[in-house]
Amino acid sequence: MTQKAPAIRIKNNALKDTRGDKIFFAINAFILGLLALIILYPIYFIVIASFSDPDAVLGGQVVLAPVNITFEGYEKVFQRGDIWQGYLNTIIYTVVTVILSLVVTIPAGWGLSRKTTPGKKFWMIYFIIPMFFGGGLIPFYNVMSSLKLINSPWAVILPAILSVWNLFMSKTFFESSIPEGMLEAARIDGAGKFRTFFSIVLPLSKAIIAVMALYYAVGQWNSYFNAMIFLQDENKYPLQLVLKEILIASESTVGGSGETILQQYRLANQLKYVSVIVSSLPVLCLYPFVQKYFAQGVMIGSLKG
Amino acid sequence: MQGVKQLPAARKRQKNRTPGYRLRTFRENSPYLLMILPAVLVVFLFNYLPIYGVLIAFQDFMPGDAILSDTTIWVGFENFTRFFNDVQFWPLMKNTFILCIVGFVIGFPLPIIVSLALNALKRKKTGKVFQTIYTAPHFISLVVLVGMLQLFFGRYGLVNNIAASLGAERVSYFLESSAFRPLYILSSNWQDFGWSAVIYIAALSNVDPVQHEAAMIDGASRFQRVLHVDIPAIMPMISVMLIMSIGGLMGVGYEKALLMQTDGNLAVSELIATYVYKRGLTGVPDQAYATAIGLFNSVINVVLLIIANTTSKRFSENSLW
């Protein structure tokens, strides 16, 4: 009987595709396809514009394929010291952030997931309050200032090493994914809480460690605001802050006659296209491979409640 | 949920034991405290110390002053009343509310619709490919996103090139205040609808196929099944997300607004949070005033959250607490 059931289901499905259903499926697929184009085209355009002749880009001839392929823009970006300095800084900040964040988040997630943790209720509330209420920007700045973190790379790293959302996500993971039996067995074998955590829990938690590392890494890679308010020396700027200066020049500040404006646009725009590509490349290249981990993270989070 | 159910029983058991037993259990479980200690410290430093720091909103505060000392000058709600009488008050409220509410009205249902549509695709593999494409822009940084916007909507960007070839005037969209909100909201949706849909897709994949089969036997079309099987199945998730996004309604996106601001669009792009940044950290900083404005904003958020949660609790079984 149980083996027959799937066959019946397929037959049913085939029978139930009425004409209305067929129209529905077609329209649905069409709209979703259109949406995919809306997502992909701007990214595709940036790519082809980055190695097209800047005059052709400015003249509107580059629409579907690159025109007069040139790597001039890439050469210029490779010569810019500030971009590479920014790159290096971002890599350092990101690596340090990820390491520290795992050290802080994973054990805390485990501790919070245990029912026997002393004062568990209190600690839960302690971590939930900051999710919905904060002191705001200025008091935060003043705290950093009194911790002597202004113009220090640690100002970019330390506030990023714990996200309460991520903490609760790892807690939820631990609650649902570590078999009680194994913990019980470890306890009977005389393993202490730390021993159990390091030898049993961690090896079973590769998925959540990967998800957390990715979340923190992307967060740090893409952030600019803390760096903008705390860092003064340009040689400490992360990539995003360097990019901000290249990409987001206010149009109102561009003066001069029509000719020079166009000339400025021509040079600046090519640099912009290339720097968008160069800066987003690591994340976008990595993305297809790690995408399932990101989605996994959301699903772990959604188990809550 | 399980933890909550078992807690009272566990507590009752503990009460019957001797103090020695309780000390022993505490000692046995104290390693857990050590494990959460680093997180407790980080939250204390970067979340709780700033909350203590909001006290300066009620003071005549100069940068460098101690928050509590003998010389502290308390001014009560003076900083707040100053804000309410600020010429910027109503424009800021209006800009923030309009941007957040329009953004919410478009941005909240879109991921739900997309997840339903993806789930209703005939071929599941196609859905996976679409989902991969839709989530990709989430990983583009704000700086790059706004940079892309400028490249596309700048005076000599793609959009103007196309418009010019059709004979229209070139427009610097970033200098037009009327273009700020559409650009802001559309780009936010472009970036995040796929990511926000993931959570609903996860919920939809948990729908029992038996429900769909039963509906099919009753003669329901695919579209009717979306309405009567899929939507009810993700309703609890929708409620929770609704409460959360209403709670964060007034707090979103000022980092992006700051990047998009130009002299031309400041009349609509100045939000409460960007104003806090400007008054508190740039020019001649007025920190107490900026903190008061920030506190006002957070209090609105908390009130909205409580209202949303209470309403949801009354009309359905879904709530955050």
Main attributes of the structure:
heterodimer, A: 305 residues, mainly alpha, MetI-like fold, globular, B: 321 residues, disordered N terminus
- What integer value in Å does the Rg of chain A equal? 26 Å
CATH architecture of the largest domain in chain B: Orthogonal Bundle
Any idea how many domains of chain B? 2
Low-confidence stretches of chain A: 1-8, 252-256
Q: Name the poorly predicted regions of chain B.
A: 1-5
What distance separates the N and C termini of chain B?
Answer: 12 Å
- For the record, the CATH architecture of the largest domain in chain A stands as Orthogonal Bundle
Query: Termini of chain A, distance in Å?
Result: 37 Å
- The fourth-level CATH homologous superfamily of the largest domain in chain B is MetI-like
Shape of chain A: globular
Write a brief caption for the model.
The complex is a heterodimer of chains A (305) and B (321). Chain A is an all-alpha fold and 305 residues long.
